[in-house]
Amino acid sequence: MEKRGYHHGNLRQALIEAALRLIEKNGPTGFSLSEAAKDAGVTPAAVYRHFAGREDLIAECARQGYQIFADLMEHAWNGGAPSALAAFGATGRAYLAFARRFPGHYVAMFESGISPNRSPDLAAAAGRAEQVILNATEALTRHIPEARRPPPRMVAAHIRAMSHGVVELYARAPGGAAPYTPEDLLESGMGIYLRGLGLLPPDD
Predict the structure, then answer these.
(1) Which of 97, 85, 78, 83 minimizes the C-alpha distance to 183?
(2) Rg of the Cα trace of the chain?
(3) What is the C-alpha to C-alpha distance for residues 175 and 41, in angstroms, rounded to an integer?
(4) What is the rounded CA–CA span in Å between residue 85 and residue 141?
(5) pLDDT for residue 202
(6) In a 3-state reduction of DSSP, which class is residue 82?
(7) Which SUPFAM superfamilies match (predicted)?
(8) CATH of 8-51, one of 3.40.50.2000, 2.60.120.620, 1.10.10.60, 3.30.70.360
(9) Looking at the whole model, is its pTM more than 0.85?
(10) Lowest CB count within 10 Å: 43, 69, 122, 194, which one?
């Protein structure tokens, strides 16, 4: 393959984008640094100018993914407008949209085995994304008397787990077809959960 003439500033990003394509196609352990270099059209030696190994490359894919994810979640939350409940539902839909639109990032973030605490930059990006969900949860549960209020971090963890489950089973997995859309599944599941916490009125 003819090597491309990358400037110093964009060679690193070219390798990241190559890794994202390979992650999406083969999974986080299904490619080598040499394959990423080949996909990017550069020599294998060029990779090591920017990344110590494959895990470092995947970690950077995850970091960029968390940044995109946090931006989408903040946009969906919109400061809690028009209401905390409506904005909370929007964050759930944003979770599904991110997984569909950025599958390579999603896998690097949640399925690669790379810890968010691997580096300060990765931890900061992951923490920002988590904080959006926590802020939304705190706003949604604020009116519950403190003695009866569930821990916001626990509620946020439950919602994240539910969102991740819908993504894995119905939004990304081949053959995961269901009689309902992933959005409907997540919305109804969140409704049942929030109603059980007293955050929604009971059905008539």
Answers:
(1) 97
(2) 20
(3) 34
(4) 10
(5) 59
(6) coil
(7) Homeodomain-like, Tetracyclin repressor-like, C-terminal domain
(8) 1.10.10.60
(9) yes
(10) 43
